[in-house]
Amino acid sequence: MKEISGTTKIANGHTLDLKVKQLGKPTLVPPVEETKKGLYFLSNLDQNIAAIVRTIYSFKSEEKGNERAGEVMKEALGKVLVHYYPLAGRLTISPQGKLIVDCTGEGAVFVEAEADCSIHEIGDATKPDPATLGKLVYDVPGAKNILEIAPLTAQVTKFKCGGFILGLCMNHCMFDGIGAMEFVNSWGETARGLALKVPPFLDRTILNARDPPKIEFQHKEFDEIEDISGTNDLYNEEMEYQSFCFDPKQLEKLKMKAMEDGSLKKCTTFEALSAFVWRARTKALRMKPDQKTKLLFAVDGRPKFSPPLPKGYFGNGIVLTNAVCRAGELVESPLTFGVNLVQDAIKLVTDGFMRSAIDYFEVTRARPSLSSTFLITTWSRLSFHTTDFGWGEPVLSGPVALPHKEVILFLSHGQERRSINVVLGLPASAMKTFQQQMEEII
């Protein structure tokens, strides 16, 4: 048995030394039926975000207990991989120098483990905590790059209270949030003996680059911005992670603030919150007035492609859009200024823009730059909380860690999922300033 420890602060201020024991060695779970072999194409939208995403799903059930949790999850995984067979393959590099999946049918990596405490002792898991929550996902030891990590690894950790946590390690190049949500929900349906509500649409060649490529937009999302403010030096400080919850009243207050000068006819929650947090973070990082700052965020392109992507599209259907301005303009202007920039960035995303972004990668092989950049990832519309493997819906679901220091997460929260948790990490001194600005609204 392999034992892993991790320390975290829990609600009453004490620390928890979480001990997790792996039960036996990791095993491979292949599809239970014969599936297609050979190379499986990944689109240029998949190439852009080949990062490992680690998430946890926490299930409690005093009546049912967790004795059969590992067995049920493992059996259902083998069945659902028949439909999602590329997840049972391995990533490799194509002759064109791009990521591609070799559909070997080897299987997903599956680990069973047990913890020495109850789930509630972990405390506030709405904040990323790689030191402790990281013990609940399986990281391939000694892996030098993503080619040495299976596209999907799963760990089921049983707790003394009769609950369990499913920890997933998934490569973002295999799917975006919507695709991942559909896969996890399909796995749950399979575990309950149900047919898949949304079977995956596997053909990603519908997002092939054009021949010849046509780059029709500037694509500032790829621009490298010079750090004239010394922001990178600030990140040498100790990092602090926080989550800030905006309830429906506070979100409404933000929208009213964005429209108070009368220049905006309408404003969504996302637009107001994005502009507010972008401005607050820029101020907290003490950027010089002439420092350019870039906002990046993903827009779901599924309905915006012409024709729209098929239902159940298994892959990345998101495209990154952007807004760029001087830090001084953003910080000194009313909230309306930032909201306008966010709205313009959303309007950018058309079929033409997305096809142009696909072609841009084809020609340049460039990836979006994160220098002097703020990247928002929105999970608030993803229904991971509805996943049910037979133990009811998870009492909690969320990320183990933020993938980059520039990333902020928007997560749905509370009754009817109408509140939004803003989750981020900042250098300790910057977090103090950021917190003060949050208190204006929260």
Structural class: alpha+beta
Q: In angstroms, what is the radius of gyration? A: 22 Å
Secondary structure: number of strands: 17
Shape: globular
* Main sheet properties: 8 strands, mixed
Question: What is the subunit organization of this protein?
Answer: single chain
Tell me the fraction of residues in β-strands, as a range: 25-35%
Average pLDDT confidence is 91
Task: Count up the helices.
Answer: 11
Helix content: 25-40%
Distance between the termini: 46 Å
SSE string, helix = H, strand = E?
EEEEHEHEEEHEEHHEHHEEHHHEEEEH
Low-confidence stretches: 3-14
Write the layout of secondary structure elements.
Elements: E1 2-9, E2 15-22, E3 27-29, E4 38-40, H1 44-47, E5 52-59, H2 69-83, E6 90-93, E7 99-103, E8 108-115, H3 130-133, E9 152-158, E10 164-171, H4 177-191, H5 231-234, E11 239-246, H6 248-259, H7 269-284, E12 292-300, E13 318-326, H8 327-332, H9 335-348, H10 351-364, E14 373-378, E15 396-399, E16 407-413, E17 419-427, H11 428-438
Parallel strand pairs: 8-9, 12-14, 14-16
Antiparallel strand pairs: 1-2, 2-8, 3-8, 4-7, 5-10, 5-15, 6-7, 9-10, 11-17, 12-13, 16-17
Helix pairs in contact: 2-4, 6-7, 7-9, 7-11
Architecture overview:
Helix content is 26%, strand content 26%. The chain contains 11 helices and 17 strands. It has helices spanning 44-47, 69-83, 130-133, 177-191, 231-234, 248-259, 269-284, 327-332, 335-348, 351-364, 428-438; strands spanning 2-9, 15-22, 27-29, 38-40, 52-59, 90-93, 99-103, 108-115, 152-158, 164-171, 239-246, 292-300, 318-326, 373-378, 396-399, 407-413, 419-427. A hairpin with a 5-residue loop joins β6 and β7. The N and C termini lie far apart (46 Å).
